[in-house]
Amino acid sequence: MKYAQALEDGYEWPDEIEIEGVGTLVAGRLFQISKADVDFNHVRDLGWYQVRLIMKQAPHKVGKDFGYWGTQGTYLIQSKGPFNKNGTEKSRCRLIDFNIGEGASGYAETRIWKIAKGREAPNSKGVKLVKPVESNRAEKYADLEEWAAKHKCEQFTTAQLAEKSGFSTQTILKYLKTSQHFTKVKQGLYECA
User: Fold this and answer.
1) Could you tell me how many helices (H) and strands (E) the chain has, helices first?
2) Which residues pair with 44 in a beta bridge?
3) If I label 80, which of 106, 110, 111, 113 is the partner at 20 to 30 A Cα–Cα?
4) CATH of the domain spanning 137-192
């Protein structure tokens, strides 16, 4: 199908969709799904999938019957996955399409139950994924370094940096000794490099 013909038929390619009670799905974002088992009970699939493309089906295609497989939904989410939480591919990782939204039923129906809320970060192979936000030490350091990049040449006291980062004064002082993102101006005063 050609793009111009698809537009005439009523297909759309939105940049994002809002999943009620779950969050906003955008390209690059990781999400988790549940699929129907043999008894048509939805079971959570372990692993994260990355959104590649969102397509809103033409109105006449919503609810299209695939017999045994069920019916087509309002949206078709083209994605790659599953990935582990750290962004590495699982052995069954592949490109896959999911039918979601009104009209989807049976084996063809996919439900999204969790969407990662986080930052883009490359994994060891350089693949950029929107990873889930974690409130661990590495995330706090990454947030502080990102903030420092936005405040180049500005000066801050140790207390201000400790408050911004969420670390204790002792922890921030230890970090500042080895950090390339901050330059010591004088005792208790640092400049974002």
Assistant:
1) 4, 13
2) 34
3) 106
4) 1.10.10
Distance CA 144, CA 107 (A): 45
Cα 192 to Cα 173: distance, rounded to the nearest angstrom: 14
Q: Please list, in sequence order, all residues whose beta carbon lies within 8 angstroms of the beta carbon of residue 89, skipping any fewer than 6 positions away.
A: 83
Q: E strands along the chain, which residues?
A: 16-19, 23-26, 30-36, 42-44, 48-56, 75-83, 89-100, 110-115, 120-122, 128-130, 155-157, 182-186, 189-192
CA separation for the pair 162, 159 (Å, rounded): 5
- The pLDDT tens digits for 105-119 are 777 788 888 887 665
For the question of whether the overall pTM of this predicted structure is more than 0.70, the answer is: no
Within 10 angstroms of residue 75's Cβ, the number of other Cβ atoms is 24
pLDDT at 126: 58
Cβ–Cβ under 8 Å, residues 66 and 87: no
